[in-house]
């Protein structure tokens, strides 16, 4: 999925971004408070959604404009987030940025670029439990939750007649039919660490403690060993397996299992792969893997002159567009009424992904998460290639994340 690939590219360079934006926020130039207009307005939206998704978004937004008498202007934005920050600070940015991964919100909050959601805009109880915690930074709701996504286990229903319910059954079925994924990508591997009690930062009631890093504890170490075993013991995949290779193997019907996300469903349908979706069984000696859950969000610029209309538009998009987006491209709603809509509920793929996501964990949204991706990628590469043990990876990742956090401060 283009959005996801773009997001991972941003995450790979996000430590630099966090430093740059923090510098902008403390440059000594006081941010001018802009007044919110109360009458009719022209709301400008930059979207990271493209093609059919953009068309659907535009249709909903234009319906809002027609109903309210406001204007709305949408454009597809393919710039990097650094460029958005520059445009926003100069007053050249949009009122709304749409389709932003929630784990970037902490960085933009630190830079003073996000408006706080009005307290009476929506009822949190109308949304999935993980929705608003994922968009809350420093106690403030700084974005609107649009949809959720998580990694899931796809299986070829011709090769796997009965989905495995135990870890031993999964290993047996994968040994017979094949299993592959982007093995050095931490996003997909987090569930294996969490299954044994690993975590990124300790979550204390919604506040992350960056001094309590769980990427090197006993549970995380067991998770790293499990990942190593996929490559070095069970020989499911080569050490350099990536997403493109793994997807090709599955869409060509060469492998029985593929760990990925809803963004690959269109490619599977095009290739006419008969597939099902499932969660991993509980690992041997541990619990069920809890995958990272990513939320697609939309936020209002702190520099916008049309804040009231912008938040109203986002509420309208959520209420009127969630079912449409789910039906079009498996964007999993976080609005409970949309999840209960027959068009969504009866969509077996959407329902299956929603069930897996409900058991997962939102990625931390604080700036410190940006220090995790590169150390994990580098050390996982050493792990799967047999150049480092699980114990060494656990130790080195933790130290490198600590060093990364220190450079942010």
From TrEMBL:
Its main location: membrane. It comes from the Bacteria. Keywords: Cell membrane, Lipoprotein, Membrane, Signal, Sugar transport, Transport. It is a lipid-anchor. It is found in: Cell membrane. This is Maltodextrin-binding protein. Belongs to the bacterial solute-binding protein 1 family. The keyword Endoplasmic reticulum does not apply. The keyword ATP-binding does not apply. It holds the Pfam family SBP_bac_8. The lineage of its organism: Bacteria, Bacillati, Bacillota, Bacilli, Bacillales.
